[in-house]
Write a structure and sequence with these properties.
The complex is a heterodimer of chains A (226) and B (263). Chain A has 226 residues and is an alpha/beta fold. Chain A contains six helices and ten strands. Chain A has a single domain (33-44, 78-225), classed as 3-Layer(aba) Sandwich (Rossmann fold). Chain B has helices at residues 2-37, 42-55, 60-81, 91-129, 132-138, 143-179, 186-196, 199-225, 233-261. Classes of the chains: A alpha/beta (226), B mainly alpha (263). Chains A and B meet through helix 2 and helix 3 of A and helix 2, helix 4 and helix 5 of B.
Amino acid sequence: MGPALIELKGITCASEDGVVLFEDAHLSLHGGEKALITGPPASGKGLLLKLIAGIERPVRGTVLLFGKDITGLKGSELNGLRKRIGFILGDNILISNLKVVENAALPLIYHSGLAYRESMERAFKLLDIVGYRGDPWALPGPLPPYAKKEVCVARAISMEPDIVVCEGFSEGLAGPEKERLSTVLAGYHGASPGRLLVLTADDESEAAFFKPDRVVRIEGRGFKEA
Amino acid sequence: MVKRALRYLGHKVIGRAVLLHSFWRIAVVSLGSFVFRFRRNRAAADVLLKQIYFTGFQAIPIISWIAVILGLVIVTQSLSILPKVGGEHMIGEVLVWVVVRELGPVFAAVIVIARSGTAIAAELGSMRISREITALEVMGIDPMRYLVMPRVIGTAVSVFILTFYFETVTILGGYLLAGFGKRVAFPVYISSVLESMGFLEVGASLLKSVLFGLIIGVVCSAHGLMVEKSITRIPQETTNAVIGSLRLVFVMDAVITFMFFYI
């Protein structure tokens, strides 16, 4: 097991509606792990991702990313850590006014300092790796969910992050599509020993294709190993 | 009753103060990130160029039509009145007073509010609703730097260019349509316009255009970002963006006119 890349220490946090979802909760996720986090709808999976991304702050406790406390971080320091995580948000969110390939290249163009052409070439390669077969110059709006998910995966791994977090990965995907994309993610995870892959799902059966080596349940305002 | 009225008034004042503060914050952050961090950011440069293309370049047909028609109206009116008082030579001054000092920047701003201000507010609002702004945040991309700054600066640059274009087309087009063949020869017309155009007129016009552009970009972006949770907020905030932009543009117009030509 590698070092702890994500640590939640004694966090207490409520949803936007004021419902306390975590109370003195602890969770550590390490490099090399393939972790599945399950919990019924509105149990706090989305809130957990927001805490990891530093979008939400806990009322109490600390959130550590790569060993650094992010609860007090803002601006470029926080963004510097965020770019080391690839997020695949539920609903397959892509930037609607950017073409497919521009979506995949966006983190590279914004963060990497690579030349524009190089970034685009890499984005084309990534789209190929994830199996995207549509028009790379199309706007993403009319794409089917599966194609959108492929672009989201390409974008998430474009910066070669140490952590990849997927929210509701299987939503809107049929069996073979799930298998194929989870193989892509597993391949990315296995390509370097220190990478952490985290998936969230309502229950384990939903993510059976993922074959996690660790399952954590959100229960009683905290986390429990399954 | 009095207590309720005071509470209502208090709410209104605080709401207005919060709104003005958000405008101020967006203006400062946009200008700051443009001046200090823009060079290293190709992604934001792309958004800026797209904004200038949409707000500036694509507005040229409508701006041209309005400028030519306005020029026709002003030159026709001037040439119907000035000869009666022996003031044909004043045509240039009238045009500079009316078009360069006032109507150029204001018309360009109003057209940009109608075309692009609404688009900015609606686009940012829908990006907020569809969680695209959250997606940018989790990628470590600062939405202020990537989405808002290029829109604010792009709008300012576009209004600046469109104002200059509008004034040129109004003055030239007005003469071609209404003044051609009349008593004022074209060289006399042009030299009269140029002689009347001093530093004060040009300076006020340019300052107005830049500030109007900044106001439109800031106000429309702020209202777009205020959309939360419900899609029905998008048209409401778009309307608020238009009204807010118009209000501030006219107030700023009055302030600059007063500063330049009264004090």
